[in-house]
Amino acid sequence: MTRILYILQKEFIQVLRDKSMLPMILFIPVLQLLILSYTATFEIRNIRLVVCDLDHSSESRELAGKFKGSSFYNIVNYVQSYDEGAEWLKKGTAEQLLVIEPGFAKNIIHTGDASVLLTTDAINGSAASLMNAYGTSIINQFGREMAVTATGSAQLREALRIEPQFWYNPELDYKTYMVPGILVLLVTIIGMFLSAMNVVREKETGTIEQINVTPIRKYQFMTGKLLPFWIIALFELAFGLLIARVVFGIAVAGSIPLLFAVASVYLLVVLGFGLLVSTITDTMQQAMFISWFFMVIFILMSGLFTPVESMPDWAQWVNKANPLAYFIKINRMIMLKGSGFSDFSGLFFGLVFYAMLTLSLAVFRYRKTS
Amino acid sequence: MKGFIYKEFLHIFRDPRTMLILFGMPIVQVLLFGFAITNEINNAGIAILDESKDEMSIALTDKLLASGYFTLKENLRSRDEIEAVFRKGNTSLVVVFEPQFSSRFIREGQAAVQLIADASDPNTAHLLSVFASGIIRDFSGDISIINKPPLTIRIQTNMLYNPELKGVFMFVPGTITVLLMLISAMMTSISIAKEKEMGTMEVLLVSPLKTWQIVSGKVVPYILLSFINALIILLLAYTVFAMPLRGSLLLLLAESILFIVMALTMGIFISTISNTQQQAMLLSMFALMLPTILLSGFIFPVENMPDALQYLSHVMPSKWFIVIIKQIMLKGLGITYFWKETLILALMTAFFLIMSIRKFNVRLS
């Protein structure tokens, strides 16, 4: 036990001595938390629209006015031909083009069958389908209003009322959803890179030999290496939760001790993985690259940015081996919905399994002789 | 000079782990983005709380489930179960039919369906509720012929450049950019910082090599590697995902080289301000990689961010490069459309070059 304490003391001295490391560990993640939460959003607002009104009627102007009045749209220009409007899309200075063809008003009044053209820059496919849905719903709404005026009946009641309700986040604020996920991401990055860099750094500078000749046991060495980062990362989580509360007003809906209990198991997985990477590499550069390689795959597939349920079946199976996905899901459940242990016990035991797996692999792979 | 470049190549090729990141990563990323990662919604878990269980509520349930957007996870019996089902986290939407649904719909012409969404994921919640509302409206339109609107406005929609709305069109330009940045900026900065940390920089400095020779010796292998990588990604996008190249290939390659050189000068600059490999790594990670991914419009559209972040995104070189790639590959435009972006990249290169030469000289004295 005392041996572990000595190694612990040594690690803390090493981390805290480096003047540039401490601010990096503390402030950069905080900055990232603030910036990330504002950047990571799929909300579409202020769609830049070019209107090409070839009809010049009061009806066509009224339709354009509907777009202007919508909080989703921002009319950047009115043009007189389709080609001129298409040029805006080409240059990337507008995302959508609405063309109202000549005869629009006449058709509304006489034949009851008018048409408009809505062109969308679809390079970003998912955004395009949303923009298209917004545009379509504004035009449809306009059509219904026109129909009411045409028939003279003030009430065009819908026989089937649809009452949408949004639980847990009635304003549909995307930040509320992202902050818990980003917290996990930051804790992971810090834990993984500190642990992955650590042993290999001793290898590269040769100081590992000095430790190897001491009577310390493998598991003692590993524990001593692991604990400091475990503490730092948990501290970081607490700090992040505080920021979430103060800056974003997101309070943890569920139990905070439960959250930390899950986090401490999860961090064992991350640190175990980092140490494993550290033992199988010889230089920091290699360690960096290998952990980066896995981090990118873990992050992209974790459901942090895109829903896991939409991935094909094989990818969802692969994702069963992704600890990041487990913890992001659990953290969101606890923080936003107040889920209890029984709601995610399966995921939790998955984490326990991976913690044991990575830690025993790391201890097993570590050799005191080279 | 030649010998020096050769030495750098050996450093890189000797190690399979570096090769993994250099060539494995781009391929894995493009494949993941192409096949696995999508923003589209399909098979979202829903639960039904049917308080009437009559002809129409069953018909509407079938219609919802047949759409392909939803998978039925559970049939609920009371409202108290909604909370529990959300907390378990497999269900994103609960559809509630009120009692005597059919009779209220037909006789009174006024029935209600509640769509209760788990909005802890607001994006999915919003989309699901839009999709479900659409299906329900269709259904109600099918049933009540009396309600047929006297006026229709047909909307012809036109999806430019990407009619099938493939996600990979969006991700390929971003992936190329991130990888070029990773290899060029991060690897050079680490490799120079390493020579400093190990003390081998001194050896190089006392050799008859000039400073510019040392620096270009460091840089040339990475230019080549980055370039090969960009070609691999483009080829993959072209063959596997049928991503078009509508503009000039030559122009695209020229712009890529400009961006690579920019990233390299940036890497050299980072290495001049950091003393250890670890510092260089953390700096490139946090100051470079994450902003590159987030503020460049790679995944998240920049237009929706707060103003301050939009201004910040202007100093991200990757943002300009992504615009250029998209305009060449997907829109097939020429240099007249993006000379401004090109000029910005060139100015950034000059800036980092001057800064690092000044820093480098200070270090020598």
Q: How would you describe what is shown here?
A:
The complex is a heterodimer of chains A (370) and B (365). With 370 residues, chain A is α/β, with parallel strands linked by helices. In chain A, 66% of the residues lie in helices and 10% in strands. Chain A has 14 helices and five strands. Chain A has a four-stranded mixed sheet, sandwiched between helices. The two termini of chain B are 23 Å apart. Chain B has a four-stranded mixed sheet with strand order 2-1-3-4, sandwiched between helices. Chain B is of the alpha/beta class and 365 residues long. The model of chain B has no long low-confidence stretch (mean pLDDT 81). At the A-B interface, α2, α4, β4, α6 and β5 of A face α2, α4, β4, α6 and β5 of B. β5 (160-167) of chain A pairs parallel with β4 (111-118) of chain B, so a sheet runs across the interface.
Rg for CA atoms of chain A: 28 Å
The biggest beta sheet of chain A reads: 4 strands, mixed
Outline the low-pLDDT stretches of chain A: none
Topology as H/E string of chain A? Answer: HHEHEHEHEHEHHHHHHHH
SS-based class of chain B: alpha/beta
Helix content of chain A: 55-70%
What is the approximate shape of chain B?
elongated
Strand content of chain A: 5-15%
Mean pLDDT of chain A: 84
Strand content of chain B: 5-15%
* Biggest sheet: strand arrangement of chain A: 2-1-3-4
Give the helix proportion of chain B (percent range): 55-70%
Oligomerization category of the chains in this entry: heterodimer
In the predicted model, the low-confidence regions of chain B spanning at least 5 consecutive residues are none
First CA to last CA of chain B: what distance? Answer: 23 Å
Please report the distance between the alpha carbons of the first and last residues of chain A.
Answer: 26 Å
Order of helices and strands of chain B: HHEHEHEHEHEHHHHHHHH
Count of individual helical segments of chain A: 14
What order do the strands of the largest sheet of chain B run in, or round the barrel if closed?
2-1-3-4
